[in-house]
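Lay summary. Proteins are chains of building blocks that fold into shapes, and those shapes determine what they do. In this project we predict the shape from the chain. Here is one chain we studied, written as its sequence of building blocks.
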Amino acid sequence: RGWSRPTRRTMDSLAGSRRREARRGAGSADKILDRNSNFRELWRPEGEEGEAVVGVVGYGSLLSERSALSTFDSVENFRLGIVRGYRRVFKHVAPIFLERGIAIRETMEMASLSVEEGCDEDAIVVSLFDMKASEVPAFISREEEYRFVAVTPEELDGSPSPSQHVMCLCSSDEDFIRNYGEPYYNERYGKYNIGRVWDLPGILPCPVYLRHCTIAAEAAGEKCHESFLDSTFIASGRSIRSYLKERQDILTTLPPEHLRERYGG
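And here is the predicted shape, written in a compact code that computers can read:
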């Protein structure tokens, strides 16, 4: 057979492979944080009345200030910024999606969002804000499936942020078991009989959550929206921009009525 023009999906897959091969540990200098220390090395006495705060990087639903305010008891100094050396990827199952009935197991559409180390050219537009240090234990519990990394982001104008921020980083089932033990892992995830939480073959974004994040990114402005479309990938390496061109129904399908405010961007 003669040569035929590659499809967009093929090109995306090849691009993803090249990007993975090109990764040189651009974020490897960033420090993995010990969840047992409550990120004390990031505490800063800059909150109201001198109360300690911790900087947070948001890259999915937390691109929306409204979503941040509904998640945290306190949100201070909310703004957009840039984190270099990482990219977003939908590559793990979020149990909350199964609990709320918005994961589609039949089609493997049940992935949530994380970030992974990329190459030197990778950069993502994110939200930056401060939470009270007293909220760190609840934050760690809520994001228990992730690792946590301390990064020094840039402000949107390219100037360095004066402080490090915590960012949720991709992890593994094995890492979760090391942190919490196999009995808790089985209690938390085993009942869903999904095989794995991280790197489950064939996994795709949960449609309701992908719509939620896309709307939040669009509302945050053009730079954020473009970054989300082009610097976010499904597990196979295909960009979200390309994926949504094929799955336009995701953006037009409303969440279940009782979750429309929660997942409304």
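What the prediction tells us: The CA atoms of residues 48 and 153 lie 23 Å apart.
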